[in-house]
Amino acid sequence: MSNEDQEGGFVSHLTELRKRLINSFIFLFIFFVICYLFAEHIYGFLVDPFARAVKEDGSDRRLIFTALQETFLTYLKVSFFTAFFVTCPFILMQIWKFIAPGLYKHEKIAILPYLILTPILFFLGGLLVYYLIMPLAIKFFLSFESTGLSTNLPIQLEAKVNEYLSLVMKLIFAFGISFQLPVVLSLLARIGIVDSQFLKERRKYVVVIIFAAAALLTPPDPITQIGLAIPLLILYELSIFSVKFIENKNLQKEDA
After folding, report:
1. N or C: which end of the chain has fewer CB atoms below 10 A?
2. Gap between the Cα atoms of 11 and 17, Å rounded
C-alpha cells in the first residue's frame, strides 16, 4: 500500500469519526431540549426518594434555593444528566459502527455482548441508588436532627435543591460506572492481561480497594459506602466466573 493510500485511509477514518461524533452530539442536544421541556417532571422523579422518606416523620418539609439562578441551573443540569443517560446506548452504537468495519467476524461477536451489557449494568446501578440506597441514606441523615431539648436550639434539615440533586446524580453515576466492573475485567481477560487465577489470588487486596473506592465515591456515611461496596464485591466474584468461562471457551477452541 502506498503512502497516498495510507493517508487517504487515515483521512477517511477521521472523517467517519467526526461524522459519528457529530451525530452523537446532535442526538444528545435534541434529547437535552426535550428533557428541559419536561425538567420539572424529571425533577419530581429524582426528588421522590426524599419526599417519600420525609413523609414518614410527619414534618412539613421543603427544598430551598439560595440564589436567583440556582433552580434554573439545576434544571439545566438535570436535563443534561437525563439526556446523557438516555443517549448512552446511541453513543455506544455510534462507537460500535465506527470500529466494527475493522474487526473480524469473531471479534464482532465477542464485543457485541459488552455493548449490550454496559448500559444494562449502568441502569441497574442507577435503580439500586434510586430505590434502595437513597431512601436509606436520607433516613440515616435525618436521624441526626434534634428537637432542641438537649441542644437549646432545634437542628432541622433545610436541603438545597442543587445540593440534593447533585448528590443523587453523583451517586447514580458512581454506581453506574462502578457496575461496569465485570465488563472491564472480562475485556482484560480476553486480551490476556488478567486470568481467573490472578483475580482469585488478589481477592483480599480487591476488597480493600473496593471499600476505599466506595468511601471516595460516596458521601461519608456507612449506608451508601456499604451499599456500593457489597454489590461491587458480588460483581467481582461474578467476574471471576465470567473470566473462567472465557478461558474454558478459549481452551475448547484450541483443542478443536
Report:
1. C
2. 10
Quote the CA–CA distance of 198 and 15 in Å, as a whole number. 41
144: DSSP letter: T
Q: C-alpha 212: how far from its chain's center?
A: 18
* CA atoms within 13 Å, Cβ hemisphere of 90: 17
Orientation angle between helical segments 134-142 and 222-255, nearest 10 degrees = 160
In which residue are the cell numbers 446511541 written? 90
Q: How many CA atoms lie within 13 A of 157 on its CB side?
A: 22
Residues 168 and 162: beta-carbon distance below 8 Å: no
Is a pLDDT exceeding 70 seen at residue 116? Answer: yes
Q: Helix H segments across 129-221?
A: 134-142, 161-178, 181-190, 196-201, 203-217
Chain-wide mean pLDDT for the chain? 83
Among 90-94, 161-165, 241-245, name the one with the lowest average pLDDT. 90-94
pTM more than 0.70: yes
Cα R_g (the chain), whole angstroms:
23
> Between these two residues, 149 and 227, which has the higher pLDDT value?
227
Res 1 pLDDT > 60: no
Q: Look-up: residue for cell 444528545?
A: 28
Instruction: Name the burial class of residue 188, with classes exposed (0-12), middle (13-18) and buried (19+) by CB atoms within 10 angstroms of its CB.
Output: middle
CA 217: distance to chain centroid? Answer: 11
Cell numbers standing for residue 94: 455510534
Query: Under DSSP, is residue 64 helix (H, G, I), strand (E, B) or coil?
Result: strand
Kindly state the helix (H) or strand (E) to which residue 116 belongs, with its residue range.
helix 105-128
Q: Which of 86, 115, 85 is nearest to 99 (CA)?
A: 115
H or E segment to which residue 109 belongs = helix 105-128
